[in-house]
Amino acid sequence: MPDIPEFPGVVEALRKKYPEDESSRLVLEGAGADLLDSRMRAVFQVAPGVGGFVTPESLATVQVPVEIRWGGADTVNPYEVDTRPYLEHIPTANGRSAGPHVRHDDFFAPDPADPTVRVRVGREAATFFLQHLG
Question: What is the pTM of this model?
Answer without folding.
Answer: 0.77
